[in-house]
Design goal:
The protein is α+β, with helices and mostly antiparallel strands. It has one domain: Vaccinia Virus protein VP39 (Rossmann fold, 3-Layer(aba) Sandwich). The protein has a six-stranded mixed beta sheet. A three-stranded antiparallel beta sheet has the order 1-2-3, with no helix packed on it. A two-stranded antiparallel ribbon has the order 6-7. A hairpin with a 2-residue loop joins strand 6 and strand 7. The longest helix has 15 residues. Bound molecules: zinc ion (ZN).
């Protein structure tokens, strides 16, 4: 077994299990380069003094390598899942349900909000960004990943209509998740570099940061960082 790196989330060894971008896995926490790039982004923000150990953190999932890292680092951690059959704020199997388009948290509740590959699945992402802006404290950060195409403009793939039906503008693209299975979740859009403009339109100061680390096997992985100034 060839050890190719060391995980910044748990100090575990990273091995190459295949040649895709997800193939560089930590043996201990199962992190991918996406999770480790988020860890590098958190370390950056912490270095600027904006993320103390008692920070109020909200993560939009209840499992996985980055969730496990957050739950060790931050005592004041809120987390949730999205279930389409549960009212936001209610619990299912001990986990709170939240819809990022209508969060049940109060204004200025969090120092940092974070998610991994979520916003491309949110029907009205701008509404979601507005809600995250509302629940962040002034000076708080939204730190997240989405699949980013090497294009300037975001391509809308599908629209959720008022009657609840979905209009497909392009052939549907589904991504796997732990709850809905390997082909369970529709991607409403493919983001381009203008994701920054979408975030700035609701008040954030946003940027796309690219992370590289040989030691941690992170190679040009993008993390979007949006500051509520
Ligand atoms: Zn790890």
């Amino acid at each position: 077994m060839f050890i190719s790196g060391k995980c910044n989330l748990c100090n575990g060894p990273i091995i190459k299990i295949n040649s895709t971008q997800f193939g560089q896995r930590c043996i201990f926490c199962r992190s991918t380069p996406i999770h480790r790039a988020l860890g590098l982004a958190f370390a950056d923000i912490r270095g600027r003094g904006a993320l103390p150990a008692d920070a109020a953190v909200y993560e939009m999932s209840s499992r996985g390598a980055f969730f496990n890292y957050l739950s060790k680092q931050y005592k004041n951690l809120q987390y949730s899942e999205y279930y389409d059959d549960v009212e936001p704020g209610a619990y299912k199997a001990g986990v709170q349900c939240q819809d990022v388009q209508r969060l049940t948290f109060g204004d200025a509740s969090f120092d940092v909000v974070t998610s991994t590959e979520v916003f491309e699945h949110v029907p009205d992402d701008i509404k979601g960004y507005r809600e995250v802006y509302r629940v962040l404290k002034p000076g708080g950060h939204l730190v997240f990943t989405v699949p980013l195409a090497d294009t300037d403009k975001t391509v809308e793939r599908a629209v959720l209509k008022e009657d609840g039906s979905i209009e497909h503008l392009l052939p549907p693209e589904y991504h796997g998740d732990r709850i809905r299975g390997s082909n369970g979740v529709l991607a409403f859009r493919t983001y381009g570099a203008d994701i920054v403009d979408r975030l700035n339109s609701v008040g954030f100061s946003a940027s796309i940061e690219r992370y590289n680390s040989r030691k941690e096997r992170v190679s040009n992985n993008a993390v979007v960082i949006a500051l509520k100034g």
